[in-house]
Amino acid sequence: EPIDPHDLTSPWLTLRKAAYQAIRKVAGGSAYVARAGAYTGGTNGVFWVRIIERRPDGLIIIQNLTEEAKVKVEKVVKEIEPDLVYPLLRGRDVRRWGAEPSAWLILTHRKGMGLKAIPEEEIQLHYPKTYGYLKRFEPVLRARAAFKRYFTRKDKKGHLIETGPFYSMFNVGSYTFAPWKVVWREQTKEMTASVVGLFQGKKVIPDHKLMLVEAHSLKEAHFICACINSAITRFIAQSYAIDIQMDTHILRNIRIPKFDSRSSIHRKLSWLSKKAHRAAKVGNIARLQRIEAEIDEAAAQLWGLTPEELQAVQESLRELG
Q: Engineered SS bond to 223: which of 43, 107, 270, 282, CB 3.0-4.6 Å?
């Protein structure tokens, strides 16, 4: 059946008839918008780095990660200012109920500026060493297809002009800088959502292979995460999405309501998500399974599913593998 019964061109669900009525109660638009993480335009080898040393003078020594970069660039060890270096969260860093950054990202944008990167004169003035590092890669950064598409245009005389600094990045907005986020991998067989907050005192930046939802509080983030990781949502996603497309459309098709701290069921789901993260962190699988069963029951209550409908969904999810 189409996930939207009024639109035959919407994604189609493959499911048992017993689960269909339950899914109809859940399918629909969410109160939240999912976004893709920050995108370097294919030049991960420039912006993705590891921190080798933190110096007493406040500078950090970084080395760019070139091993898996599609666009090959030279390996550089350089001291730079730490201000524009953020914890980087990649797909490999995320599992259900757990996420921890394993690298760092040079992010040349600020909150409130949208896709506009920090102007060159400002970076030169305040972050000269970071600018010097980026300047080494100027030709390859200007050659990015995404840079040419979004940050160049022709003037009235037909001359090509640039509308943003050569180190501009993509998929950046206010949501990028949210202190609390719910993230999941785009390329996965099932939903693998986790709450992520600050890491070593800095906001975590997911890369573009991760989907994210900004939250305004830790409780709200855990509520969203519980809804997404419930068997109900996982079943819907797996019923119509393919393994490499668990992207932003998920929240356009699953009706997650806005978090309401006055609602006992909302608070319960948030609390259970927090417990699930703790159990997953210490590897207590038996406890985690019990918590997930409680989450399924609470999510069924949230969406008005009967015990029989929840059971049909859970059995159908197991059949999907």
A: 270
Show Cβ contacts of residue 223 under 8 Å, excluding neighbours closer than 6 positions: 259, 266, 267, 269, 270, 273
pLDDT digits (tens, 9 = 90+) for 16-70: 777 888 888 888 889 999 999 999 999 999 999 999 999 999 999 999 999 877 8
H or E stretch at 67 = none
Distance CA 80, CA 310 (A): 54
CA distance 268 to 125: 49
| Distance of alpha carbon 133 from alpha carbon 171, whole angstroms | 22
pTM of the model: 0.91
Place of tokens 């080395």: 63
Handedness of CA 153, 157, 158, 159 (dihedral sign): negative
Name the β-bridge partners of 46.
none
- pLDDT tens digits for range 179-217: 999 999 988 777 899 999 999 999 999 999 999 999 999
